[in-house]
Amino acid sequence: xxxxxxxxxxxxxxxxxxxxxxxxxxxxxxxxxxxxxxxxxxxxxxxxxxxxxxxxxxxxxxxxxxxxxxxx
Length: 72
Fold this sequence. Notes:
Helix content: over 70%
Number of strands: 0
Number of helices: 3
Strand content: under 5%
Radius of gyration: 16 Å
Order of helices and strands: HHH
Shape: elongated
C-alpha cells in the first residue's frame, strides 16, 4: 500500500490529518525510523505518537486551567 493510499484512509475515516503527517515525518526521517518500519509499523508508530502528543496537549490545558483557577 502506498503512502498516498494510507493518507487517504486516514482522511476518509475522519482521523486527524496530523497522523498522516506523522507517518510522512517518521518515514522520511532516518533517525525517527531507526527500526526501518514497514508501512503498518509506521502507522502504529504514528498513532502512538499522535496519542502521546494529544495527551500532552490535554495535560497542558488541564494544568493551565488549574493554575488559572488557583490564581482567582
